[in-house]
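Aim 2 progress update. The chain analyzed this quarter is reproduced below.
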Amino acid sequence: HGFQDREALLKCAKFSGIRLLRSWTFVLGNAIIGKTSSAKASPVMQQEIPATGIKVMVVDDEESNRIIISTWLQRLGYTCFRASDGLDALLQLDREPCEIVVMDWHMPGMDGLELIRLLRARAFKKVPYLVLTTGDPDPKALKEAFDSGADDFIRKPVDASELMSRLRGANRIMELEKRVYAQAQGEALNG
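Predicted structure tokens:
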């Protein structure tokens, strides 16, 4: 799902109004979606790969946002899948479960809040870690997102450093959940 060549990346960047500086391989390392940056790639983007094998679904009705966010994540070792709306994400998650879902709130058809509610209500073996993004400036949006079942919330424009920091936190939480589950399974077998 990554860029196969430099031309595909440049086309996406041009489409989304983002200027690439110096090298296309930094893939907007220090940029914020919707803005340009002349700075070097952020230290977060230059770190060693911490997330090898973790599957992430990126859900956004804006193709440029899906491509940029999934490219950031792929550079850190995440395996990414993309969906254009909540229904597309739900169908893909049935075929390929993911540990994390990063989704836009406002999308045509099934929006992010509806997707969160459905994922929480379904009989999944494990509900993914759910991160909601929005450009909505309303201060009540954060409360509504968490009340709907979001695990985390990021305001748009999405900053690469903030996203990576939050996903490192998600990784720690998921690792702890695995240990607790394994311990509970061991106790159930022994007791």
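The radius of gyration is 17 Å. The first helix runs from residue 6 to 16. These observations will guide the mutagenesis experiments scheduled for the next reporting period.
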